[in-house]
Amino acid sequence: MGYADGIPRIAQGAGVFIDGKRAPIIGRVSMDQFVVDLGAQSTAQSGDWVVVFGDGSHGEYTADDWGSASLSINYEIVTRIGPRVPRIYAPHVY
User: Where are the annotated coiled coils located (predicted)?
Assistant: First the structure.
């Protein structure tokens, strides 16, 4: 995922939820990818689930967090995610 998929290029302070914790974006968001800091103690592996935004009940970033980080609002974040991104609406996938 990157800005071609609707991830804001300006997203200072946003990130993803992986391996049971938040992993902040480091560097720039490019067209098809961005990099997150998993930390030295991470046990995350290729193929693990990643939550870009959720409801926050498990500590994941929310659309509000992404909106604040990109000087925008939550509605803009969720509506700009493009058709290349598969959607999974599941209550407990992580």
Answer: none
Residue 42, token pair as written in the block: 């991470």
Domains of the chain: 3-80 (2.40.37.10)
Measure the CA–CA gap between 65 and 40, rounded to whole angstroms. 24
Element spanning 25, H or E:
strand 21-26
Q: What stretch of H or E contains 68?
A: helix 63-69
State how far the Cα of 27 lies from the Cα of 7, in Å rounded to an integer.
14
Mean pLDDT of 22-28: 95
pLDDT given at position 88? 77
Longest dimension (CA), the chain: 34
**pLDDT tens figures, 41-64:** 999 999 998 999 999 999 999 999
Alpha carbons 4 and 6: distance in angstroms, whole number: 6
pLDDT at position 7: 95
